[in-house]
Amino acid sequence: MTNVKVPTLGESVTEATVATWFKAVGDSVAADEMLCELETDKVTVEVAAPVAGTLAEIVAPEGTTVGVDALLANITEAAAGAVPPTAEPSTTSTAKTVDIMVPTLGESVTEATVAGLTKAVGDSVAQDEVIMELETDKVTVEVTATASGTLAALDVAEGDTVSAGAKLGALSAGTPPTSAPTPAAAAAPAPTAAVKNAPSAEKLMAENNITNVAGTGRDGRVMKGDVLAAIANPAPAPAVAQPPRSGGPRAEDPREERIKMTRLRQTIARRLKESQNTAAMLTTYNEVDMTEVMALRTEYKDLFLKKHGVKLGFMSFFTKACCHALKEIPEVNAEIDGDEVVYKNFVNMGVAAGTPTGLVVPVINDADQMSFADIEKAIAEKGARARDGKLGMAEMQGGTFTISNGGVYGSLMSSPILNPPQSGILGMHAIQKRAMVVNDEIVIRPMMYLALSYDHRIVDGKGAVTFLVRVKEALEDPRRLLMDL
Fold first, then answer.
1. Per the confidence metrics, is the pTM higher than 0.70?
2. Core-most of 3, 271, 272, 458, by most CB within 10 Å?
């Protein structure tokens, strides 16, 4: 018997939700074949079979919150050359009573409230079908049937508070007797099974109040990516008549809309607030004349696209400029670990990207060793994957410095918030033509404000200002990048 466990979920990520099982108990599986998907605060993680064999048991059904290294399932390994026996029809009932227990609720979570019951005593239930929902102060957890059968008992009611590991009810599970079908039964057409959408998709649809999403999964199954695409390109909503406003003091305004925050949005809010509370964050500003960069880009953009197959943008110039400046001011590329400062002799550049569900920061590893073309290709590829919700957890880990471009949205000035545990983040802004004094003459120049937010615990003002000046010098004279000056 081989255990299937939760893999490493990433830096600072301690739990995930079982989103979808693609195999059922008794199914044959091949080594490295995908068994299920786990959903974390940011991405979906695929879990593959470590060996070939038969899925003997699913320990964590869909909707269960699990921690790192928790047991998900068991696989009975296939013997070399063995042929699986042919199952004979059962003629006797093998029903047994299975307790329904409160699943793992997550780290430091000890109790939950029964939010809703979807089944009553005596109802038939299928394996993995939702029986009830539990609400904690962090997430909603679905309790599903571990086997097919009949709901024999319920020990709780809606609104009850239950502890982790408590018994919720009992299921009479087993294989019912089978008999040869009658001619009438054989002639009757088989009912069409309802297509079950991915739980992660159902949850995202509910959180964003979306219905009628076209599914691209098997048999039209709606997947998480389908919902993200629908959020990014919403269909015009039909006009809905609003109910009359109640006269009570707590009546909801019909002009308001209340939507529960997604787990990603909650995580973004928590991490950014933690950054403000932990780091001694300070921001310094400067401005850069973009004349030379824009002229260089205009002159070579067509040749660059023809040779490398990707457009030449501004981000590669800023990435290169930051990499050069970080070599001179290494504390901006460092982080605090307890009572030690960890200096990084490499640059893993985080590039903040807006998505339909929130801000994510994919990381370009070893950006200091990459060419302009390599940087542009990496930014384009990771940006597209971020918008499609296909970024893996590993692609958002290990960043040492971050660039955030608020200028694409028209921002003229802002103070970016640190992405912990990093000690520096550069904010780019909109390019605006302004009157400047150059060689005692007033001229019109394309100018951009730059903002460097830094952790004052390890970065002094002199280092922060020097870093920003070096970035400015490299952009105003791009030849410095070629000369490594």
1. no
2. 458
